[in-house]
Amino acid sequence: MATATRSWAPPGPYDLDRTLRVLARGPGDPAFRAAPDGSLWRASRTPAGPGTLCLTVRDGAVHGRAWGPGAAWLLETLPTLLGAEDDPAAFVPRHRLLAEAHRRNPGLRLARTGLVLESLIPSILEQKVTSDEAYRAWRLLLQRFGEPAPGPADGPAARMRVMPDPRTWALIPSWEWHKAGVDAKRSSTILRAVRVAARLEEAAAMDETRAAARLQAVPGIGPWTAAETLQRSNGAADAVTTGDLHLPKTVGYALTGERGTDDAGMLELLAPYAGQRHRACRLILLSGVTPPRRAPRFSVRDFSGI
C-alpha cells in the first residue's frame, strides 16, 4: 500500500501528545491509537474518503505518514491539525495558577481537525451520561458499523476503524443503538445531524459564533455539544463548555478555592480571558487542581437487557 508523507516544523516548543490527545474518545477509541514507540495514529473520514494518519516527532519536526483515499487531504491539512493556525501567545495569564500552567505547557496548541461530524457524533453520545458510557457506545458503534482503517497490516492501523459515513449512520437500526447503550434522544439527534451532514461540515470554515449557530440549528444540539465539537473541529480558542457537570466547579475551585461555582460564575471568572477562554480551561485542567469529591461517581448504566 502506497504511503504519502509530509513534515511540519513548529515555530517553538511543541507537545504532540497534549495537543492531539484531546481528540481521543477514551483509551479504547478505535479511531485513535498511541503506539508504544510514541507515535499517534488517527483514522478519519475525510472529504476525499477514509484515511489513516501516523504522526511522530523527530529532529524538532512532526512527521506524518498517511494511507487511503483520504491520505492527500490529511497531509494537506496536517499543519492546521497540529495547531499551526493557533496562537498561544494571544493568551495572557492573569492568575498565578494559570501563569504556572502556561509556563509548564509551552508546547500546547489547539488542534483543528476541520472535520465536524467526526467530533459532533461522539459529543452527542457524551450528552448527559458518564464518559465511560459514551466511550463504550462510540467504540461499539465503530466496531460494528465503521470500516477498517487503511494502512499497514502489521501496525496499529490493522486494529483501527474509520467512523461510518452519514448514510450508514442513518441506517443503524434502533436495536443496535440500544445494544450500544444509546437512548432514543441521543440517537435521534445523531440521525437529524447526519441528514444535514454537508451543511454541518461547512461550519469548519466559519467563525465560532456562526459555526455554533449552524450546529445548534439541529434539534438536540445545544451549547454544550456545539462547544465540545468546535473546540476540536475548529480549534476554537474561546469555545467554553457550559452546561457541564464538573467544569464550572473545577474552574471555580482552581481560581478562587470555592467549590460551588456554576456556569454564570465560571463565565465571570473567565471574562478576563475573552477570546481565549477555552485555552484557559485546558490549562486549568492540565494543572491537576480539582475540587475534592463529595459524592460517589455515577455508575455506568446497562441498557442491553432492557
Give a concise summary.
The protein is of the alpha+beta class. Helices cover 42% and strands 12% of the residues. The protein has helices spanning 16-20, 71-76, 78-82, 96-104, 116-125, 131-145, 166-170, 174-179, 184-195, 197-201, 208-216, 223-233, 247-256, 263-270, 277-287; strands spanning 4-8, 32-34, 40-46, 49-58, 61-67, 147-148, 161-162.
In which order are the strands of the major sheet placed? 1-5-4-3-2
The domain tally reads: 1
Just name the CATH architecture.
Answer: Orthogonal Bundle
The CATH class is: Mainly Alpha
Structure characterization notes:
- By secondary structure, the chain is an alpha+beta fold.
- The chain has one domain: Orthogonal Bundle (Endonuclease III, domain 1), CATH 1.10.340.
- The protein is built from 15 helices and seven strands.
- It has helices spanning 16-20, 71-76, 78-82, 96-104, 116-125, 131-145, 166-170, 174-179, 184-195, 197-201, 208-216, 223-233, 247-256, 263-270, 277-287, and strands spanning 4-8, 32-34, 40-46, 49-58, 61-67, 147-148, 161-162.
- The strands form two sheets. The protein has a five-stranded antiparallel β-sheet with strand order 1-5-4-3-2. Strands 6-7 form a two-stranded antiparallel sheet.
- A hairpin with a 2-residue loop joins strand 4 and strand 5 (61-67).
- Helix 4 (96-104) crosses helix 15 (277-287).
- The chain starts with a strand and ends in a 19-residue tail after the last helix.
- Mean pLDDT is 95; it is low at 298-306.
- One of its GO terms (cellular component) is protein-DNA complex.
- It comes from Streptomyces olivoverticillatus.
- This is 3-methyladenine DNA glycosylase/8-oxoguanine DNA glycosylase.
- Keywords: DNA damage, DNA repair.
- GO terms for molecular function: alkylated DNA binding; DNA-3-methyladenine glycosylase activity; DNA-7-methylguanine glycosylase activity.
